[in-house]
């Protein structure tokens, strides 16, 4: 048989150690060494995502501009028809909701990354390597939170451009941004869980079908008081609404007021909901990951 | 060229004394040992008392029909799956007790090329090198060395998604070789590749073995096992049904075979009659190829007798060939009338991704199981 053009050496020099045994790097044998391994591995995997951005800037830019497009659509196309309860500018009302929406869209990013790796066998390759077990997840988590930070920065710039601002000081504003990231952190576990449970990245459409009602059935675009009673109740208790309501409060942006429990305790709920979601989906995601070896 | 199989640069041999609790067993020259492996999915056994012993530095072929348990076995041996019962030692370490030690010493090539599609070849290998805890400089050097060795040095910054199937597989193999593993698992390394890419992968496997690595290979193509493996284990229904060298397995069928190809369809009956009379057995007739085959004992005498017999009968033979039985024939004989794997693979594209329990024990055609293969590939 003729040799392929990209000829490979038919013989290779023997390994340096006798008996064909290569001595690999020693495994960590102390708690500190294990932590160091976990940190290095997590960073390597975070860098992997950063390299994806560098290689596919178009994909990143499109994902970042999508919420901007929604702001323009709702802020200018529909915004003229919107009455903010208690008066105020609709775009000031809209922006906190759009920050939160950006966090919700993040589920799709997490889901796509996790399910692609699982379907392509990359997750299995990682599992067959001496990687710190937590690194795959921590790397994903760090990369996605970084992605959300960039997304928030773009939205802040967009908000300033359409006349939005915070009015009660930087400290309270930072608190609101913290709540957004907390929400994103909680949704991360839903994304990882669904990504491991799904057959492959093709199921992304199904995730979008789940994500959109979560985003729109909230106080992001309209006041729940204007909706039919049952729908308004769902929108009011939507975890997203809690974060949005709390952020409006912290930014000093016009809100929809309301006198319900959910409306009066928005900040508490904006902390409680993500914690609850994490408490449910973190163990589910871990269990799903461990079940890969069953 | 620098030492390509050997230790990556910058890695100094560790001191085995500092890891006494995890010292490998001194199990002589055995690289893989599995005893009494059992694994069931939802009550359906996928492995049912599977044994395997692979001497160090050899290539071992694992053959079996779809759903026989090959992939399940490889996944257990490579620490991806926990066995329900049984003992596994790979590179001297117990897989269940010291998976991390085993992972340091194995390479795995799954059924899908599991590399990052967005990154280029160099970025992939550097990333995997870092994940094997090579220092950055060593990871870079090792990546460059492996790209060169696998003929991928000129791919530049092209993302892997733009690679051909063969290139992707070679990169996959390079990634699995970063630590110069003692044991390499190849799960159908050439399924879905064109003949040229297949040859490239075979070359890579041969050079791997030349460097002292032990290889366990599952394959759909018996020809592949015949070419690469020194010993073969045939699995069916999660159990070993035969093992030995390819030649020894072929010898089980006994004797050699003579194939005759005739020029005209009309000559088939006459030629068949001649062959059956002279060999004393029923002939296998492939009407489409106009080929008739019979087993024979006395090789040269049978050949001359058949040639003379055909001439007497006035049959024009296009081809008369004396040959050893193929591994396909051995396989058909061992596993009954079930589809030989090579045909199944052709029919299904990429079959046997799963060894799913529901498939085990049934003789369903490979095509029917393909739809599920992707989903189950990572269960």
TrEMBL record, chain A:
<keyword id="KW-0472">Membrane</keyword>
<keyword id="KW-0046">Antibiotic resistance</keyword>
<dbReference type="Pfam" id="PF01061">
    <property type="entry name" value="ABC2_membrane"/>
</dbReference>
<feature type="transmembrane region" description="Helical">
    <location>
        <begin position="98"/>
        <end position="119"/>
    </location>
</feature>
<feature type="region of interest" description="Disordered">
    <location>
        <begin position="1"/>
        <end position="25"/>
    </location>
</feature>
<feature type="transmembrane region" description="Helical">
    <location>
        <begin position="57"/>
        <end position="78"/>
    </location>
</feature>
<feature type="transmembrane region" description="Helical">
    <location>
        <begin position="173"/>
        <end position="196"/>
    </location>
</feature>
<keyword id="KW-0813">Transport</keyword>
<feature type="domain" description="ABC transmembrane type-2">
    <location>
        <begin position="58"/>
        <end position="292"/>
    </location>
</feature>
<protein>
    <recommendedName>
        <fullName>Transport permease protein</fullName>
    </recommendedName>
</protein>
<feature type="transmembrane region" description="Helical">
    <location>
        <begin position="149"/>
        <end position="167"/>
    </location>
</feature>
<dbReference type="InterPro" id="IPR000412">
    <property type="entry name" value="ABC_2_transport"/>
</dbReference>
<feature type="transmembrane region" description="Helical">
    <location>
        <begin position="266"/>
        <end position="286"/>
    </location>
</feature>
<keyword id="KW-1133">Transmembrane helix</keyword>
<dbReference type="InterPro" id="IPR047817">
    <property type="entry name" value="ABC2_TM_bact-type"/>
</dbReference>
<comment type="similarity">
    <text>Belongs to the ABC-2 integral membrane protein family.</text>
</comment>
<keyword id="KW-0812">Transmembrane</keyword>
<dbReference type="GO" id="GO:0140359">
    <property type="term" value="F:ABC-type transporter activity"/>
</dbReference>
<dbReference type="InterPro" id="IPR051784">
    <property type="entry name" value="Nod_factor_ABC_transporter"/>
</dbReference>
<dbReference type="GO" id="GO:0043190">
    <property type="term" value="C:ATP-binding cassette (ABC) transporter complex"/>
</dbReference>
<dbReference type="GO" id="GO:0046677">
    <property type="term" value="P:response to antibiotic"/>
</dbReference>
<keyword id="KW-1003">Cell membrane</keyword>
<feature type="compositionally biased region" description="Low complexity">
    <location>
        <begin position="1"/>
        <end position="10"/>
    </location>
</feature>
<feature type="transmembrane region" description="Helical">
    <location>
        <begin position="203"/>
        <end position="222"/>
    </location>
</feature>
<dbReference type="InterPro" id="IPR013525">
    <property type="entry name" value="ABC2_TM"/>
</dbReference>
